[in-house]
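As a warm-up, study this chain.
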Amino acid sequence: MSDTKKNLLTKAIGQKSTTLEAEMSFFDHLDVLRKHLIRAVIAIAVFTGIAFYFNEEILDKIIFGPKKPDFWTYRMMCKLVEHFPSLGKDMCITKINGEIINTEMAGQFNLQLNVCVMCGIVLGFPYLLWEIWRFIKPALHENERKSASGFVFFASVLFIIGIIFGYFIICALSINFLTGYTVSSEIKNTFTIDSYVSSIATLTLGTGIIFELPIIIFILSKLGLMTPKLMRSSRRYATVIILIIAAIVTPTPDILTMLTVAAPLFLLYEASIFVSAYIEKKKKKADAAFYAN
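Now compare it with the structure written out below.
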């Protein structure tokens, strides 16, 4: 066998060995990820089981809470009207129109199941983030670990704040608006339980995810895909989008009510700009130190 053929054979064997090692490493990582996800699913299942135990209280006080005139948000709005009559009587909500009906044989069973699973996901979300962090952490450098050490805490706090804001503000105002909205007196508002619960889940969980915006901007800024300059230049478009969202979910055309909903969204956007600027400043400082050496 010639030297050329030997070299080619050796190179081919080396490449094959490298490929096999890469494949084994890839599947090893998949196996580790699977174990983290299994633990997260078990945690969510445990929280779902706890929710089943307290299902009556959850359904009556949480799920159907925004359907009742004595809901905390509506009571606070009425108190505001008492202290500031100029806000208008329409802001004080004393009646929620519309009826919730069940049109399927297994509808109420599915309601209970879906609500408990949703509660399990919400309660288990911080643990899910913890497992994801444990999976990612070994691949990070020491300085990257330090800069992202508060990932689970801040992401969980923002998610919980988003859930609270979405449930007590956006969800409550949206339900009041949608259940009372009519285009004709001939049409009676009756809603299926699936429609009602899906609306609550979408608005509440969606707001919780939206409140993760600073964390998303943090990651994108670390990857170099987002800069404070870009976010500042897009502020006018973000303002329009935020005001449109606030106008859709508010029950009255009153500007004060709309701004109450829009204010936290503006703060989130500005906080995201601050996060992006902080990451960019650290990158420039690190680059300057590197080239200085």
